[in-house]
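Appendix B, record 7
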Amino acid sequence: MRRTFISLCLVLLPGFSVIAQGQPPAKFVVYGQNIEERASSRIGYWRNNVNAGIGEVVISYGRPPWNSQRSQQMEQLKGTMWRMGDNYWSILDTNLPIRLGEMDVPVGLYYVAVARSKDGNDWDLVLIDPDESRQKGLDSYDVGARPGEIPVLMKTPITFEPNQGEPVEKLTILLKLDNGSNIDGRMTISWGNFRLSTSVRVKLPEHTQENGKED
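Structure tokens (predicted):
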């Protein structure tokens, strides 16, 4: 009976079972399985006369907190890419064509990252092919760890502006139209003492005007 009890313990306790059976260490680990904080920002258009949507542009992302370690990481981010979020990929999903900085972006879904030049002076907003990323089994962590393997579709310069106010405690990405316009605006990425931004222009269908109403 005592031998049976010990044998049962070795089977049920993973640490003991590996030692007892002489199995090699696991080749992978499982992660996630919890609720992760994400946020989204969007620009949407609606037809009032028929009570139906025209389309929308959405950015969704994880919200890492800012701290001294993050500050060091961002300062050292040179010659590589940053996943522009936390945990799962940051995603741009648009069912309207847009011009983002110098990029003409067709309708579709894209993974998003930020790249910094080797000298640290220049920044780019990067759109990544999600289909090829899935085929390769890539995780958003690979953006910084294996930038050469990331299937980049297009990129555009993005403006860096030091944040002169209080540090932004959690990553905040905002899509917002300019005052007086319903098609032109900016995407702004704020985190800690960093602020990045680029222009956005939404290309509405021909049967709509700039004010979002039908002709």
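Remarks on this record: Residues 1-30 form one domain. The chain has a mean pLDDT of 85.
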